[in-house]
Amino acid sequence: MPKTHAAVPELASLLDGSSAGELIPELARHGLQQLIELELAAFLGADWHERTEERLGHRNGYRPRTLTTQVGDLALQIPKLRAGSFLPSILEPRRRVDQALYAVIMEAYIGGVSTRKVDALVAALGSQSGISKSQVSRICQEIDQQVQAFLSRPLESSGYAYIYLDATYLKGRLGKAQQVCSRAVVVAMGVNEDGRRELLGLKVGDSETETFWAEFIAHLKERGLGGVRLVISDAHTGLTKAIRRQLQGSIWQRCRVHFARNLLQCVPKAHQGMVTAALRSVFAQESAEEIASRWDDLAASLAERFPKAAALMHGAKEDVLAFRPFPRDHWRKIWSTNLLERVNEEIKRRTRVVGIFPNDPAITRLVGAVLLEQHEHWQLEGRRMFSAESMATIPELGDTPALQDAGPR
């Protein structure tokens, strides 16, 4: 076994407080170095100066390698072999998002983004050593392959009863002039027949036009998207038109959270708290009939003082309450886009450090890596959003009057 006591005096000298900030990095470096030595011993089948019949090779010195961690850059010594090579598993990239950020940093540098912003990116990663262009080339190639494989994979589920569609906006450079523009990043999430969430796709474009959304949904259908019963989204005109054309026969659920914001715009600020509480009481009812009745009562109570708000409620009733024919225990998760909004919040958090992307492929790379990481987490977690039994009770299109001839308006 490696001699674990060799660095004890050196570590002990850091405990007197005279070297503030050095103890934790040194402990991390020492621990990782020991792990490397242990892994090498297992790889060779023998430790230092150990004579065994199982030995598969011999050591031949060390080469330096810097590892970026949350406690800073750690200078490690990587063993060399007389024949062959050895790379400790701890040095292999483990997180796609970190790799993507490395690639974005160098693309930003090559694309002319200011040095100050590049330095901010490096600091956010906890590294002061920078990243070489050869590393960027290798990382970009690997990340792009993984992200594109994920975004183009066949959608093998027999059906996605619920589909969530939403967009977020990031800043990127566009055209030869490299002008900074707002870029629409649209994401689709589905719930398969087993009640499990899947992130289905991603697209970057100029704005949320009908054509843009239609191309995105059409691509999902080409990959196997089917069996859609309910589409949950906001009321963006381009999106609703695309849903009507591309997902005919499915029901559109207008996000209640987005609708509430629209409703409050029709009410003076002094009365918004009262209207918000009253609207929440609609969704607190236990049955579909009670929800519809409470909705009508609220609209009637607003008619005299806030006619615009009442008109909005009358016109949006069927869209905002489209969830009613579906299983009761699904309601809270299908009457808004909150589940997908949480994914968008994570995208914003991960991309905030970048600020301005050098191009659309850089956006696709980083956001795609975030989605892939989240998707794999859901799969490994194994938790269902809805039980498979409750998914089987979702009514077929046309089974109830409420589901007939419905769709985005």
Descriptive overview:
The chain is an alpha/beta fold and 409 residues long. The protein is built from 15 helices and eight strands. The longest helix is centred in the N-terminal third of the chain and has 22 residues, at 23-44.
Number of helices: 15
Backbone shape: elongated
Largest sheet: 6 strands, mixed
* Average pLDDT, all residues: 83
Structural class assignment? alpha/beta
Helix coverage percent: 40-55%
Please write the string of helix (H) and strand (E) elements: HHEEHHHEEEHEHEHHHHHHEHH
Spans of at least 5 consecutive residues whose pLDDT stays below 50 are 400-409
Distance between the termini: 71 Å
- Tally the beta strands: 8
* Rg (C-alpha, Å): 28 Å
How much strand content do the residues show?
Answer: 15-25%
Helix-strand blueprint:
Blueprint: H1 8-12, H2 23-44, E1 59-69, E2 72-81, H3 96-110, H4 115-124, H5 133-151, E3 160-174, E4 179-192, E5 197-205, H6 210-222, E6 230-233, H7 237-246, E7 251-254, H8 256-264, H9 269-283, H10 288-303, H11 307-320, H12 331-334, H13 338-351, E8 356-357, H14 360-381, H15 388-391
Parallel strand pairs: 3-6, 3-8, 6-7
Antiparallel strand pairs: 1-2, 3-4, 4-5
Task: Give a brief rundown of this model.
The protein is an alpha/beta fold.
Keywords for this entry:
two-stranded antiparallel sheet, 409 residues, 6-stranded mixed β-sheet, disordered C terminus, alpha/beta
